[in-house]
Write a structure and sequence with these properties.
Helix content: 25-40%
Mean pLDDT: 81
Radius of gyration: 18 Å
Strand content: 15-25%
Distance between the termini: 61 Å
Oligomer: single chain
Number of helices: 5
Number of strands: 5
Low-confidence stretches: 132-144
Structural class: alpha+beta
Strand order of the largest sheet: 1-2-3-4-5
Length: 181
């Protein structure tokens, strides 16, 4: 009897294994690869990359982070939401912003200190991939930029369950003004 072929995701995780990663750290890289795969193939994100070091200090992150460009804006700050209403701009017509994503497993224990360690090392906006034409590709017909990014640092917490389900939560560094209804 022939051994079953590995799934596309299993093959992807194995192929994305960084060189020189200790076996004890591979779990974190596998989570990052699984989240990147999910964002790319299930949620249509573009320009995805895995980061292992701070873009400013080159200090290693507590665990690998993913960054990318979602197909639509993930978060609209309440002040920006008010401006959009005044200008009669729909959320679907606003440019997406690059986002940080923190891959975690459901069984991991996270404290405020651990989140603070991650937020201390990231910039408000992840670095863009450096290749020709990126700015033009981010501008899609009919999309408008309302202003600069607001609300401070944020990331998407990607939590993976034992059944490989991934849920995403927006986590802010500090207190954020509540939305108006």
């Amino acid at each position: 009897m022939e051994d079953p072929q590995p799934s596309a995701l299993t093959s992807y995780i194995e192929a994305s294994k960084p060189i020189g990663v200790l076996p004890s750290d591979f779990h974190h890289h596998a989570l990052a690869a699984q989240v990147l795969h999910n964002l790319q193939y299930q949620h249509d994100w573009r320009d995805l990359q895995v980061h292992t070091k701070s873009p400013d200090t080159a200090k290693p992150f507590p665990k690998p982070l993913v960054s990318g460009l979602p197909p639509h804006r993930i978060y609209v700050h309440p002040d920006e939401q008010a401006e959009m209403l005044k200008q009669n701009v729909q959320e679907k017509d606003v440019l997406a912003e690059r986002e940080w994503v923190l891959p975690t497993h459901l069984r991991e224990k996270w404290s405020l200190r651990k989140f603070a360690d991650v937020f201390d090392e990231i910039n408000e906006v992840p670095p863009a991939l450096h290749h020709a034409g990126e700015e033009k590709r981010n501008l899609r017909p009919g999309k408008v930029g309302i202003g600069t990014r607001r609300g401070g640092k944020r990331l998407l917490l990607a939590t993976i369950g034992d059944d490989s389900t991934i849920v995403y939560y927006i986590v802010h560094d500090g207190i954020v003004k509540p939305r108006q209804n």
